[in-house]
Amino acid sequence: RNWVMIPAVTYHEDADITDLEAFRLQINKENEKGGGKLTMLAFIIKACVRAMQQFPEFNTSLDGDNLVYKQYFHIAFAADTPNGLVVPVIKDADKKGVFDIARETGELAKKARDGKLGPADMQGACFTISSVGGIGGTSFSPIINAPEVAILGVSKSMMKPVWDGKQFAPRLTLPLSLTADHRVIDGALATRFNVYLAQLLADFRRVML
């Protein structure tokens, strides 16, 4: 129904996550005895929150003809389970650190696989991330979960030769596929959001600005 009713367009961008992935692996190695592990999804969720703060049109919903701006940041993520796809929600992601988000996504994903998610675990999302990188793929067009106005698809990261001004260098790139409701978000705004998100993932220090 969402595919038929919503005039949606998908925009593609590659994020250079070479430095972020190296940082993630370094922190996980330092924290081996601590138990918790940072995941790329946790960084993506945090970066999406920052991008939504920069572009508040992405943190809205359509209520009939009214556009409602939200002041909270509940981020959903698609989880593959033996019983099909479910979409648990990280509540107030703007108030949580990357370690907290990584732990909570892990706990919710386990509940999803065990069939123990409750309705409250899957309600109230402002924005959804659908990551198929663990399976494969280079790009796809995710379907918006109404009344949300956008959804981010994340495919499998891969090494690509990137021109640095003098030579080609191998860089780890992450394909981003952003589907947006064209009634709310035009092509220029969607592209700016995608480019900004890629910049955040390329240099995560920007999230603090």
Contiguous uncertain segments of 5+ residues: none
Structural class: alpha+beta
Strand content: 25-35%
CATH superfamily: Chloramphenicol acetyltransferase-like domain
Q: Kindly identify the CATH topology.
A: Chloramphenicol Acetyltransferase
**What is the CATH class designation?**
Alpha Beta
How far do the termini sit from each other? 39 Å
Largest sheet: 7 strands, mixed
Q: Write the element-wise H/E pattern from the N-terminal end onward.
A: HEHHEEEEEEHEEEEH
Using the CA coordinates, give the radius of gyration: 17 Å
- CATH hierarchy: architecture: 2-Layer Sandwich
Number of helices: 5
Please provide the count of β strands: 11
Helix content: 25-40%
User: What's the rounded overall pLDDT mean?
Assistant: 95
| Backbone shape | globular
Number of domains: 1
Short description:
It contains five helices and eleven strands. It is globular, with a radius of gyration of 17 Å. Strand 2 (60-63) and strand 3 (66-69) form a beta hairpin.
Description of the molecule:
This protein is of the alpha+beta class and 209 residues long. It has one domain (2-202): Chloramphenicol acetyltransferase-like domain (Chloramphenicol Acetyltransferase), CATH 3.30.559.10. It is built from five helices and eleven strands. It has helices at residues 2-5, 18-30, 40-54, 98-113, 187-202, and strands spanning 8-16, 60-63, 66-69, 75-77, 79-81, 84-86, 89-90, 127-131, 150-154, 158-163, 168-181. Strands 1, 4, 7, 8, 9, 10 and 11 form a seven-stranded mixed sheet that branches. A hairpin with a 2-residue loop joins β5 (79-81) and β6. α3 crosses α4 (98-113) and α3 crosses α5. The radius of gyration is 17 Å and the shape is globular. The relative contact order is 0.23.
